[in-house]
């Protein structure tokens, strides 16, 4: 007979296989929910992006051109043509602008909530250690567009946002910042004129000059409105460019640098256009019907 020898006992986890199966099922369910939500978020962003491109061309790109290239009348005509697209095409503003924006925001918030809930269920009670600031994965959302260290060739580091609010990426944070800026912009240029005159048909490029130069709070209000407008442009540019790169899996440093170039160009053009609108104010009529209407619009706002 073979001699029996003692062996050291070791624990057997009988429930390990059921646990693994349960985790696998949870991941499958999560994937089934998140995949269509991500598609909805992506294509609603593209839908809104059509409006955004048209609008940006008419209020940023063309107005930033010098007058020997495009006269004030030509700039206003471009603005009118662009506005005709999203104001007069039946259903475009409701579906392609407001609807697309709402769907994008709601789907994005839903994705974040679902992921957070999944992480909480998956998490084990282990001691928490701070995540390293240096990030080697260029696809990580925590690095945003890489920041200054990436541009200087010093590698990727976690963004300040992700360091102080774990799980919140710069892309998501820019979206949350964008919401109040965009709502204020809509209120100032769409809702307030409609509340005063019944519609916003009188709004033109000249109204932007009034917006930047007429405020119930005087120069302080004008300064706030100017910076809010530039902040809106920069945040929208950052969110749009970052989102497009992530949607299309463009994670390399060269793409991130290209993203910064686009953001910088758009913001610079916006600054040039804003300065042009401010400087042009002294040429505008201050006593006519349009002037009185624009003044009422501007002073009806919070700032």
From TrEMBL:
Keywords: Membrane, Transmembrane, Transmembrane helix. One of its GO terms (cellular component) is mitochondrial outer membrane. Coiled coil: none annotated. The keyword Signal does not apply. One of its GO terms (biological process) is mitochondrion organization. It holds the Pfam family MCP1_TM. Residues 50-122, 180-277 form the Mitochondrial adapter protein MCP1 transmembrane domain. The chain crosses the membrane at residues 43-62, 94-114, 164-187, 227-247, 259-277. This is Mitochondrial adapter protein MCP1 transmembrane domain-containing protein.
């Amino acid at each position: 007979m073979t001699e029996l020898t003692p062996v050291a006992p070791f624990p057997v986890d009988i429930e390990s296989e059921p646990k693994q199966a349960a985790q696998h099922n949870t991941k499958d369910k999560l994937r089934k929910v998140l995949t269509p939500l991500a598609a909805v978020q992506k294509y609603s962003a593209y839908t809104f992006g059509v409006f955004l491109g048209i609008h940006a061309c008419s209020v940023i790109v063309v107005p930033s051109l010098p007058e020997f290239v495009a006269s004030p009348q030509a700039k206003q005509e471009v603005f009118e043509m662009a506005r005709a697209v999203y104001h007069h095409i039946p259903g475009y503003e409701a579906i392609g602008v407001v609807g697309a924006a709402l769907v994008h925001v709601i789907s994005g918030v839903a994705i974040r909530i679902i992921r957070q809930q999944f992480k909480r269920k998956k998490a084990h009670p282990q001691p928490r250690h701070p995540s390293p600031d240096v990030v080697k994965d260029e696809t990580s959302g925590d690095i945003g567009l890489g920041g200054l260290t990436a541009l200087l060739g010093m590698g990727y580091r976690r963004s300040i946002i992700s360091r102080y609010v774990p799980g919140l990426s710069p892309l998501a944070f820019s979206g949350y910042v964008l919401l109040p800026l965009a709502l204020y912009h809509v209120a100032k240029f769409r809702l307030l004129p409609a509340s005063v005159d019944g519609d916003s048909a009188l709004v033109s490029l000249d109204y932007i000059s009034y917006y930047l130069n007429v405020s119930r709070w005087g120069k302080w209000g004008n300064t706030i409105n100017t910076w809010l407008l530039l902040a809106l442009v920069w945040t929208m540019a950052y969110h749009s460019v970052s989102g497009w790169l992530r949607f299309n899996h463009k994670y390399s440093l060269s793409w991130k640098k290209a993203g910064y170039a686009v953001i910088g160009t758009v913001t610079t053009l916006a600054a040039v256009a804003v300065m042009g609108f401010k400087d042009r104010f002294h040429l505008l009529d201050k006593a006519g019907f349009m002037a009185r209407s624009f003044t009422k619009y501007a002073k009806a706002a919070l700032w």
